[in-house]
Amino acid sequence: MKILPLEESISLKRTIDQGTEEQRIAVQAILADVRANQDSAVLRYTKQFDGVELTDMRVTDAEINEADKRVTDETKEIIREAIANIKDFHERQVQQSWMTTKPDGTILGQKVTPLDAVGVYVPGGRAAYPSSIMMNVIPALVAGVERIVMVSPPQKDGGLDDTVLVTAKELGVKEIYKVGGAQAVAALAYGTEQIAPVDKITGPGNIFVALAKQHVYGTVDIDMIAGPSEIVVLADQTGRADYIAADLLSQAEHDPMSSAILVTTNQKLAEAVSKEVDKQLETLPKREIASEAIEKHSCIYVAATLHDAVKATNELAPEHLELHVEEPWVVLSQIRHAGAIFLGEMSSEPVGDYFAGPNHVLPTNGTARFSSPLNVEDFTKKSSIISYSKQAIKEHGHKISSFARLENLEAHARAIDLRLKEDE
């Protein structure tokens, strides 16, 4: 890895892949086709892109039960324990509706209501991501969403991965469709004969899925348009080179565009980590992907002081931040921008990916400056409650009508004046 002195300003921001003009045109055509031709279009694209000819997209109970038989009890127990941890964490995020009253009889409040229906996109095909199901479904369940629809691209045999189906079963998700790509997003947003539309779509996917989500936003809500994965490790002289290198590579193996950065106050540690990264890369199965990420989008910065290192870390606003420092809880108070913060050398980033409980759907590309991990609140909406009494209108009505006239909205003012006259 490159070792550089810390500059005054560093950034993780990279241009999020907006796709080629050809890809954008293709996605728009798919969305329009599915909107017009519904199931027939979805099935046609599934055959074209996934090489699978289906007559029915919905996963049957029999398929789920067969998958359940093939998954070991040990795997199921791991899945159940991870679900319990994630559920426990998200239950602490639940917001309650509230009301407040004033002496003049005014009642004000906020009503929290779960969304009616949510679609969860789960990447599939050549890989399986049961953790993605947990992180998207559990906060929706905790929020009280009644209808959760899962879509995932079929494998070559026309089915879905066993662990994916077992995870969905453990979570109680029963509406599952073997469909992926832009056509799945279109089906969730617009609806088809078989798939009723939803109110929000969450979950990661390839560039065609991302472009489709961008296009349907407004018809439905979406979670985010995420960039490549990122990790920043902030370390002082107490950091262990082998741990840090392993954690940097845990993100570098995701994607050639992934970014893995070490910000340290110790030159010797910087040199040791650089050597350890090269050593660990030699035996990494995804060496080619990780090597490109390390070479093109990763670096080690050496800061003069811990204060400078923390400042740089806040400028980076990373998706994942690990604190390998002598007093991580002290440094934590100085961190303002990060999606997830891992304290101490035992808190490796994969702990958060799979098991600890916090959500691993995190803001990327510096958006941790103003956004948060996927959470229960993302699956609710809030309504303001306003109840004014005659006494309140009598006391404040003239102020309201005067304000309306400041904005030249006479009908607004007259709506209040009418009530004031009745009270004279």
From TrEMBL:
<feature type="binding site">
    <location>
        <position position="254"/>
    </location>
    <ligand>
        <name>Zn(2+)</name>
    </ligand>
</feature>
<keyword id="KW-0560">Oxidoreductase</keyword>
<feature type="binding site">
    <location>
        <position position="183"/>
    </location>
    <ligand>
        <name>NAD(+)</name>
    </ligand>
</feature>
<dbReference type="GO" id="GO:0008270">
    <property type="term" value="F:zinc ion binding"/>
</dbReference>
<dbReference type="InterPro" id="IPR001692">
    <property type="entry name" value="Histidinol_DH_CS"/>
</dbReference>
<keyword id="KW-0368">Histidine biosynthesis</keyword>
<dbReference type="GO" id="GO:0051287">
    <property type="term" value="F:NAD binding"/>
</dbReference>
<comment type="function">
    <text>Catalyzes the sequential NAD-dependent oxidations of L-histidinol to L-histidinaldehyde and then to L-histidine.</text>
</comment>
<feature type="binding site">
    <location>
        <position position="412"/>
    </location>
    <ligand>
        <name>Zn(2+)</name>
    </ligand>
</feature>
<keyword id="KW-0520">NAD</keyword>
<feature type="binding site">
    <location>
        <position position="407"/>
    </location>
    <ligand>
        <name>substrate</name>
    </ligand>
</feature>
<dbReference type="InterPro" id="IPR016161">
    <property type="entry name" value="Ald_DH/histidinol_DH"/>
</dbReference>
<keyword id="KW-0862">Zinc</keyword>
<feature type="active site" description="Proton acceptor">
    <location>
        <position position="320"/>
    </location>
</feature>
<comment type="similarity">
    <text>Belongs to the histidinol dehydrogenase family.</text>
</comment>
<dbReference type="Pfam" id="PF00815">
    <property type="entry name" value="Histidinol_dh"/>
</dbReference>
<dbReference type="InterPro" id="IPR022695">
    <property type="entry name" value="Histidinol_DH_monofunct"/>
</dbReference>
<feature type="binding site">
    <location>
        <position position="121"/>
    </location>
    <ligand>
        <name>NAD(+)</name>
    </ligand>
</feature>
<feature type="binding site">
    <location>
        <position position="320"/>
    </location>
    <ligand>
        <name>substrate</name>
    </ligand>
</feature>
<feature type="binding site">
    <location>
        <position position="206"/>
    </location>
    <ligand>
        <name>NAD(+)</name>
    </ligand>
</feature>
<protein>
    <recommendedName>
        <fullName>Histidinol dehydrogenase</fullName>
        <ecNumber>1.1.1.23</ecNumber>
    </recommendedName>
</protein>
<feature type="binding site">
    <location>
        <position position="353"/>
    </location>
    <ligand>
        <name>substrate</name>
    </ligand>
</feature>
<comment type="pathway">
    <text>Amino-acid biosynthesis; L-histidine biosynthesis; L-histidine from 5-phospho-alpha-D-ribose 1-diphosphate: step 9/9.</text>
</comment>
<dbReference type="GO" id="GO:0004399">
    <property type="term" value="F:histidinol dehydrogenase activity"/>
</dbReference>
<feature type="binding site">
    <location>
        <position position="251"/>
    </location>
    <ligand>
        <name>substrate</name>
    </ligand>
</feature>
<keyword id="KW-0479">Metal-binding</keyword>
<feature type="active site" description="Proton acceptor">
    <location>
        <position position="319"/>
    </location>
</feature>
<feature type="binding site">
    <location>
        <position position="229"/>
    </location>
    <ligand>
        <name>substrate</name>
    </ligand>
</feature>
<dbReference type="GO" id="GO:0005829">
    <property type="term" value="C:cytosol"/>
</dbReference>
<keyword id="KW-0028">Amino-acid biosynthesis</keyword>
<feature type="binding site">
    <location>
        <position position="251"/>
    </location>
    <ligand>
        <name>Zn(2+)</name>
    </ligand>
</feature>
<dbReference type="GO" id="GO:0000105">
    <property type="term" value="P:L-histidine biosynthetic process"/>
</dbReference>
<feature type="binding site">
    <location>
        <position position="254"/>
    </location>
    <ligand>
        <name>substrate</name>
    </ligand>
</feature>
<feature type="binding site">
    <location>
        <position position="353"/>
    </location>
    <ligand>
        <name>Zn(2+)</name>
    </ligand>
</feature>
<feature type="binding site">
    <location>
        <position position="412"/>
    </location>
    <ligand>
        <name>substrate</name>
    </ligand>
</feature>
<dbReference type="InterPro" id="IPR012131">
    <property type="entry name" value="Hstdl_DH"/>
</dbReference>
